[in-house]
Amino acid sequence: MAAQQMETETRKGAANGAARGAGADRSVAGATTVVGGSAGADKPAATRGRTSIADVVVVKIAGMAAREIPGVYDMGGGLARTIGAVRDRVPGGRPNVGRGVKVEVGERQTAIDLDIVVEYGVPITDVARDVRENVIAAVERISGLEVVEVNVAVNDVHLPDDDDDSGESRVE
Q1: What is the DSSP letter of 71?
Q2: What Cα–Cα distance (Å) separates residue 104 from each residue in 3, 96, 110, 148, 170?
Q3: 109-137 pLDDT, tens per residue?
Q4: How far, in Å, CA of 7 to CA of 1, rounded?
Q5: How is 90-136 classified by DSSP, letter by letter?
Q6: What does pTM read for this prediction?
Q7: Residue 66 domain-assigned?
C-alpha cells in the first residue's frame, strides 16, 4: 500500500518536472526532491533552488541508525554478510553501512526494509521496536523525508559460540 502511494507521488513529481519544460528538471537519477524551490531575485535566498536526496543517502542513514541499537549484531542476509565479512577483512576494506537496507523513496516519503542479525538473549521485539524508532527519527531528522514504514526482518541470531574460531582443528 505504501509503495503504491509513493509510486503515485513519484509519477506526479515526474509529471510536474515534464510540465516545467525539457531541460528545466535537473534531478539526479535515484533522487527525490524534498524542497521544491523557486527562482527569482525577489524570492527569499533559502527558497531559490531545489534540494534532492539520492536513495543511497537514505540507505546509509538508516543503516547507521540501525547499527546504533544494542542487540543488533550485524545487518544483511546470509550471502550479503558472507561477502561483507570477506570485504571487511581485506586491508583498506570498509564496512558497507548500507548492507541489509532497502529503500523506496518518493517525493516526500520513504519506506525502509531492514535485514538484521540480533545477539542471542536479547528480546527480538524490543530490538526491532528500538531499531524502528531510531531509524525513523534519524531519517526524518537528517533528510526531512516522512518515513511511512520500517519493516524489520530478523534473519539470524548471533550465538556466543560463533566467535570461538580458534583456527585449531580437532583432528590431525
Answers
A1: T
A2: 7, 19, 6, 10, 48
A3: 999 999 999 999 999 999 999 999 999 99
A4: 10
A5: STT----TTTTEEEEE-SSEEEEEEEEEEETTS-HHHHHHHHHHHHH
A6: 0.68
A7: yes
State the Cα–Cα distance between residues 46 and 23, nearest whole angstrom. 23
Grid cell of 66 as nine digits: 540501525
φ, ψ of residue 115 to 5 degrees: the values are -110, 120
Helix (H) or strand (E) holding 29: none
CA angle 92, 94, 96 (to 5 degrees): 160
**Extended beta strands in the chain, E state:** 31-35, 51-54, 72-75, 101-105, 109-119, 146-158
Query: Domain residues for 145?
Result: 2-19+54-160
CATH code for the domain in which residue 98 is found? 3.30.70.1350
Angle among Cα 90, 95, 96 to the nearest 5 degrees reads 125
The x, y and z cell numbers of residue 138, run together, are 534519524
Domain count, the chain: 1
Q: Give the confidence band of 165 by pLDDT, cuts at 50, 70, 90.
A: low
Residue 120 lies in a domain: yes
Report if residue 115 sits inside a domain: yes
Residue 151 C-beta-side C-alpha neighbours within 13 Å: 11
Q: What angle do CA 103, 7, 140 make, to 5 degrees?
A: 45
